[in-house]
Amino acid sequence: xxxxxxxxxxxxxxxxxxxxxxxxxxxxxxxxxxxxxxxxxxxxxxxxxxxxxxxxxxxxxx
Length: 62
Ligand code: SF4
Fold this sequence. Notes:
The chain has helices at about 15-20, 45-55; strands at about 5, 25, 30-35, 60. It has about 60 residues and is an alpha+beta fold.
């Protein structure tokens, strides 16, 4: 499975990073970087948590 970012929609809140720091982080300019777009079953809960907490629905799982 994979996390997909709708970049124009992302407002850099960083809540997703708090939910899944192993998978993503905000860079120095406040841009979200997906460290691991692909994730396995062990990280599925984290990935889903990141999607859920985003206030502007900029993340989805494909
Ligand atoms: S929580 Fe949503 S808006 Fe905020 S950085 Fe993550 S993807 Fe972007």
